[in-house]
Write a structure and sequence with these properties.
454 residues, 18 helices, globular
Length: 454
């Protein structure tokens, strides 16, 4: 009996040790990035409401690419995590090459569309002439970072699946520090440089992303994945079985990200129709909410890798045990994070050069966010981390898409049409988080999501 208790204690300690080895570097990395992004937003905020709105609209369009790339990368992560459970680097290399070709083609296509038609795309969100002019110039420059973003997202996912998270953390932090320093110089024209406004912020992003992608490439090379990928034979790489399994799992994930992104874009469009002040309020709360999300990004990534590794090693019971532990941990941490947002929000909002009306709206939005945070974070860890790690991407697709399109968007559109205040529209738009959390956790408890894919 005592031996059994000691064994369980050792296993529990091993779980938390492994979890922290993944979650802490990723969380620290995300916290530093989000904190510096907050500084970037504050810098842009000094240029006025039009600049805030222009960057907000541009970033919302760019997020379409980012989330689709995350869809492809999540598919790569699912397979590479299970391959790493068997320490199979050749299998990881195959998945890497397939995904690399896909994200390269997609990001180049997206870049061409943004570069050729920036004004038309911006007009979908706002008819303010000054905002359109600022945003079009900003996003056209930013489009040169899209291919580099694709590389960065994929390289990071592959390294993460192998438990290599600490060095990518240092690389990411260096890149964002470079981005922040260049923003300071280029936005305001310090050290003899010309003041470029938000265009300077776009240039800084391109330079930082180039630096980050090159450094991650060298890390992949050091771990022999590049050389293994180059030595793969075409017949070995493009066999029917691998392609079928890869796309059967990845396609729902990519479609999920596309439809989810369109849903998020629809939400933002609804907010945008309510006025420039409403767009500015929704945009300026993002850095603070992302600071608190950072912790759960780390926990979610840890769950994806640890559960995926366990399934790859054919340890189903351990994978299920890990899933339950991650959900319990997320519940506790999210309740604490909600309180943290309520305490910090007034001081955070006071940092912006905005009117009292915009400040009041932003404060109300953060209060609403603190209330739906627990459900939102449970969905992040469970749906994106646990269920996808088991290859249950079709269920997650149905859950996310139906939740957003049949619950969130209709409620948001109706309340906006009835001229409800932005905080009520925001609350109803996020009601789907509660619905999805209920059905997602129910799915996890059935264990039907656990699939050995390799």
């Amino acid at each position: 009996m005592e031996e059994n208790a000691e064994e369980k204690s050792r296993e529990r300690k091993a779980f938390f040790h492994t979890m922290l080895s993944y979650a802490v570097p990723i969380t620290v990395q995300t916290l530093i990035i989000s904190s510096l992004n907050m500084i970037d937003t504050l810098m842009v905020g000094q240029l006025g409401v039009d600049s805030i709105a222009a960057v907000g609209v541009s970033n919302k369009i760019t997020s379409i690419l980012n989330l689709v790339l995350q869809g492809f990368a999540s598919g790569a992560l699912i397979f590479s995590s299970q391959y790493w459970g068997q320490k199979d680097k050749v299998g990881i290399s195959k998945v890497f090459v397939i995904t690399f070709l896909i994200v390269t083609l997609f990001s180049l296509l997206f870049t061409a569309i943004i570069f050729l038609f920036p004004h038309q795309l911006i007009r979908l969100f706002t008819d303010e002439r000054q905002v359109i002019q600022l945003a079009a110039g900003f996003i056209r420059i930013l489009s040169f970072s899209y291919l580099l973003t694709a590389f960065t997202v994929l390289f990071s996912a592959i390294l993460k699946s192998m438990g290599i998270v600490q060095i990518p953390m240092y690389i990411s932090v260096f890149a964002i520090l470079l981005n922040t320093a260049l923003n300071y110089v280029l936005i305001f024209g310090h050290f003899g440089m010309q003041a470029l406004g938000i265009d300077g912020a776009a240039i800084a992003t391109v330079v930082a992303r180039l630096t980050q992608s090159l450094m991650l490439f060298l890390l992949l090379w050091k771990n022999e994945l590049i050389s293994m990928s180059l030595n793969l034979k075409w017949k070995e790489l493009f066999n029917h079985s691998l392609f079928h399994r890869f796309f059967a799992i990845t396609a729902p994930s990519v479609l999920n990200h596309i439809l989810w992104t369109l849903g998020e874009t629809a939400f933002f469009w609804i907010y945008a129709q309510m006025g420039t002040e409403e767009i500015a309020a929704v945009t300026l709360i993002d850095p603070l909410t992302f600071v608190f999300m950072a912790l759960f990004i780390g926990v979610g990534d840890a769950s994806a890798v640890m559960v995926g590794n366990s399934i790859g090693a054919q340890k189903k019971e351990m994978a299920y045990l890990y899933a339950k532990r991650f959900l319990a941990l997320t519940l506790l941490l999210s309740l604490l994070a909600g309180v943290g947002i309520l305490l910090i929000s007034p001081r955070f909002i006071s940092l912006y050069n905005i009117s009292a009306e915009v400040a009041s709206v932003a404060n109300n939005l953060l209060m609403v966010y603190s209330l739906i945070l627990t459900a939102k974070m449970l969905n992040m860890v469970n749906n994106i981390g646990v269920l996808r790690a088991g290859g249950d991407t079709k269920f997650v697709l149905y859950l996310d898409v139906l939740g957003v399109w049949l619950v969130g968007i209709p409620l948001a559109a109706l309340s906006a049409y009835l001229h409800a205040p932005i905080d009520l529209v925001f609350a109803l738009a996020n009601f789907h988080e509660l619905v999805r959390a209920f059905f997602g956790i129910k799915r996890t408890l059935t264990q039907k999501w656990i699939n050995h894919l390799i």
